[in-house]
Design brief:
Blueprint (H helix, E strand, L loop, with lengths): L1 E6 L10 H7 L4 E4 L17 E4 L5 H14 L3 E5 L10 H9 L3 E5 L4 H9 L12 E5 L13 H5 L4 E5 L5 H12 L4 E6 L7 E6 H7 L9 E5 L32
Parallel strand pairs: 1-4, 1-5, 2-3, 2-4, 6-7
Antiparallel strand pairs: 7-10, 8-9, 8-10
């Protein structure tokens, strides 16, 4: 048997990968976080699948379902919101699966940061503006930030920054970002990206706290900040310039370089 950690994507049921969808259509046991994964996603499951909402289960209780699946020779789909590689709480599950000599595979998914960028109609890297994207999160009770990863240190780079779980500490976050990006820096809040009730607010750092009510953005909110969010920022990439020669367009060297 195999446990498949499947990225369910940011919310919309059709943003799961084809591989993830096909696995849901075949496995007899599906575990999913009901607090984060929409019910519509379960429409891909086979009709007779056993579906377990893990939102109210601790890790030991979840492992009992894996043990039961192994005893029955069942494959398992473990649905995680977004992409399992980011804030997925998958590492501890995989460690325990290894200890039980149980196979697992990871099926990547669409992260909420890329879904948020799509909702904003923005590219997060632009020539001459930003070529680096920092993905980080606000510190919380479940996972304190390691040394050197505090927001003040990361914001000092001044590049595109995507901050997960930022709504609960919005004022503190904005105060920190202002020191590095300045009051005119473009900023966006995206709550529940791709869900039917998706909400977006765009503005500048200096005015953000006056324009929104923090309590409306406490949960499932991503904050994006950086000069790339300005629609008129950046020039054209050289990649498609008429005089830019490479192996697939124009005259190249004999070796194709």
């Amino acid at each position: 048997m195999t446990v498949y950690f499947i990225g369910a994507g940011p919310g919309a049921a059709d943003l799961i990968t084809v591989r993830g969808m096909k696995l849901l259509q075949t496995v007899p046991l599906v575990l999913y976080a009901g607090s984060l994964v929409p019910q519509e996603m379960l429409g891909w499951c086979r009709p007779d699948a056993e579906i377990v909402d893990t939102a109210g289960l601790d890790l030991d209780q979840q492992m009992e379902h894996y043990r039961r699946a192994k005893a029955n020779g069942w494959d398992v789909a473990r649905l995680h919101s977004g992409d399992p590689a980011l804030y997925g709480a998958t590492a501890e599950q995989m460690r325990r699966l290894k200890a039980l000599d149980m196979d697992y595979q990871i099926v990547p998914g669409v992260s909420s940061y890329s879904a948020a960028a799509a909702a904003l109609g923005s590219e997060l890297t632009k020539p001459g503006v930003a070529q680096t994207v920092i993905l980080t999160r606000s510190e919380g009770r479940a996972s304190p930030m390691p040394a050197g990863e505090d927001l003040d240190s990361l914001a000092a780079h001044g590049t595109t920054l995507c901050l997960f779980l930022s709504g609960a500490k919005l004022k503190q976050t904005v105060d920190t970002l202002l020191r590095h990006y300045g009051p005119d820096a473009p900023v966006a809040l995206v709550r529940r990206a791709t869900w039917p009730d998706q909400t977006i607010h765009r503005g500048t750092l200096g005015r953000l706290l006056d324009e929104v009510d923090g309590k409306d953005w406490r949960l499932t909110t991503l904050l994006l900040v950086g000069p790339v969010l300005a629609e008129d920022s950046g020039g054209d990439s050289r990649l498609y310039a008429a005089d830019y020669v490479h192996a697939f367009r124009g005259k190249g060297d004999d070796d194709g370089a």
